[in-house]
Every structure is written in C-alpha cells, then in structure tokens.
Amino acid sequence: MAASTVTLSKVTVTVPATTANLGPGFDCIGAALTLYNRFQFTALTDAASPLTIKATGAEADRVGTDDRNLAYQAFLKVYQTLDKTPPALHLAIDLQVPLARGLGSSATAIIGGLVGANALAGSPLSCEEVMQMAIEMEGHPDNVVPALIGGCQLAATQQNGGWTICDIDWHEGIIPIVAIPDFELSTAEARRVLPTEYSRQDAIFNTAHLGLLVRALETGRSDWLRTALQDKIHQPYRRSLIHGYSAVEKAVLDAGAEGLVISGAGPTLLVLTKDDRATEVESALKQAWTDAGISVQTKVLQIDHRGATIEG
Fold first, then answer.
1. N- to C-terminal Cα distance for the chain?
2. Residue pair 168/30 in contact by the 8 Å Cβ criterion
3. Dihedral angle over CA of 64, 98, 26, 305, nearest 10
4. What is the spatial distance between Cα 53 and Cα 71, in angstroms, rounded to a whole number?
5. Residues 6+ apart with CB under 8 A from 12
6. Is 100 helix (H, G, I), strand (E, B) or coil?
7. How far apart are CA 217 and CA 222, in angstroms?
8. Nearest residue to 261 (alpha-carbon basis) of 284, 291, 290, 228
C-alpha cells in the first residue's frame, strides 16, 4: 500500500474473513481465511445524494444503507484524518462472510472502508497508518490485522502504546474448517461471561500454550497442536453459550481432527485438521451439530496470504 499520486474514481476492495483467538491466543492472534467480502466504492460527481449503498449476497437485507454503515464510517475516517471533503459515493457490498458469527465481518467492513477511501484519495496513507486506524476503530488487532495484510498474525503492544505485528508461519498441511451455525452470538454477550480476574496458574497455562501453538502451526506437528489449542482464558466460559459444543468437539476429535476452538467470540467453531482427514472431519462436524438440532454450514478453507486487495 505504497503512497501514490494517482486518483481513482472507482475501486473494489476484497477483504478476507478472519478467525481470531485460536484457543490460547485470546485477543492477540488471528488468521485470514479464503472467504471474502467485497466493497466497491464509486466516487460520484453531481450526485443527487451524498451516499447510496447497495448490498448483495448472504444476509444482505441486514446491512445498513445509510451513513451509519460501518464501511462508510471507516471511509469517512480516512477523509477526516486527511482533512479532506469526502466525495459523494455509491458503495456496493457483496457479502459472503456471515454477520455476527465470529468470522470478522466487522473487520472486513472497517478494512474495506479504510483501504477504499485511501485508494480513492490517492493512497497517501501507509499500510501501517491504515492498520493503526483499523485497530482504533475495532478496539483490538486480532481480526483487522490479518484482514488487512493476510496470513496468521500475532499482535503485541509496545511500551509506547504502539503495536508490534509478527507473522506466524502456518504449515500448509494444517487445514482450517469452519462450522457456521444458524444462530448468532454477540461479542458483548461473549465477553460478559468472562471473569474479571484469572489465577497465576491460568496465566502460566495460557502463556505456555500460546508459545507451543506458534511452533505447532509452523511445524505442523500433530501432538504439539493438540496440546497447544487448549485454553483457560475464554473457551471454558464461552462454550456454555454454544449449544452442542461438547458433542461437536467429541465428534471431530474421534474423526481425527487436531482440535476444535471457538472462532473469535463465536458461535462459529474452527476445526484444525491434517489435509488427509479434512473430508471425514468436515462430515463429522456437520453431522454432530445437525444431530444436536442445529442447522449448520461447513466450509473447508485455506489461509489467505494476501489480505485486502484493490482493483481499480
């Protein structure tokens, strides 16, 4: 996202879904997935209205079409930062990432709006500046960072309040499978069930398991990954909010998966498995939740390594 003097009148930004936390990596680790939302920004001249929004795709009828739309709010933030007047705009949104399911739908909107506005303004902001704005809007980095730059990313705070972003290698033999149920779980509700304090033992447990997770993802070692996905910070408390969790977990482990975790705040569940077991694991995942009376959509995905992309 290098600086440019070229001013565009239309850009399309494609942003990947994300899965965050990955077990012990609460609020600090996330990965981009091969599932996308697309945002097309068209600057208008002599427009009758300063904003029109059209949404298509999954759950399009639930997307706001006024100036409170999150992608448009992010769009405006860039122009406010640049002290420029935003153009009249037509925003076309194609949704493939389900809303309020733990797959970073809000992060796609924030990144889409920021990147789209920056491109229309001639790309005066660096990738790092866009990233910082995204973190400020989202409140934490674990979804917006991989949505912007792709891959699996670990974010750590600096003493001055900034961020250090570390790319985590993801072994190509580890396949992410998501199971998206037909019910929602808000981030606010998922945070309400968490304790306000944790024991020293739990803090040590998660520190060790996060370190092991980084090495397990890099090497693809099954024994390390099975242990590394354990957590004592958020999953023991949130699993009670997800109907059928225990049955689904048992089914995928019996089918040979390396582990199951809550994707973001849920209720989507993320299964990590070796590539030669993906078909059997996906089938077991879907059947277990169906048996629990939950309609579910499953997707065998890959890690997206590009992040947000722009087409002029």
1. 13
2. no
3. -110
4. 10
5. 38, 39, 40, 41, 310, 311
6. coil
7. 9
8. 228
How far is it, in rounded angstroms, from Cα 84 to Cα 205? Answer: 49
Tens digit of each residue's pLDDT (9 = 90 or more) over 200-253: 999 999 999 999 999 999 999 999 999 999 999 999 999 989 988 999 999 999
Q: Distance (Å, rounded) from C-alpha 75 to C-alpha 87?
A: 10
Residue 117 tokens, joined: 């506005």
**Tokens representing residue 207 in the block:** 């520190």
Per the structure block, which two tokens stand in for 195?
Answer: 């304790």
Domains of the chain: 10-168+304-311 (3.30.230.10), 174-300 (3.30.70.890)
pTM, whole model, 2 decimals? Answer: 0.93
Tokens, residue 79 = 């122009």
CA 101 to chain centre: 10
Q: Give the position of tokens 């079409």.
A: 65
